Amino acid sequence: MSGWIGGASKQGLVPMLGFVGSRRTEKDGKTLWEYQGPLFGLFAEKPERLATGKYYNLLGATVWIDKFSSLLLKGRTLTVKKVGGPEPKDQLVLDNVPEDYVQTALRESAGCGS
Q1: What is the pLDDT of residues 36-55, one digit of tens each?
Q2: pTM here?
Q3: Are 76 and 94 in contact (CB under 8 A)?
């Protein structure tokens, strides 16, 4: 990870961790697999395109995490888990969250949560 972060920084990009949603693979109109829990990804973004958020230490590396991703991560453990098919790949996920976890976080981030 440190090599990737260093490469992004040399290009003038900011390494960031962000929510990417759920994933599904379909073939011939049929769902082969689906993961409905929150998935996260590592990206590199131009500094002027960063949304509200701040820098965090992620395993010794400095990364930007936007406000919504930070809300999803609060009090949770980000885990690497094999997801997908037919050949599962390592993905960054939040495991063991309620089915409506993302929708609840969306309401809270909009100021509608209790």
Answers
A1: 778 898 889 999 988 789 99
A2: 0.77
A3: yes
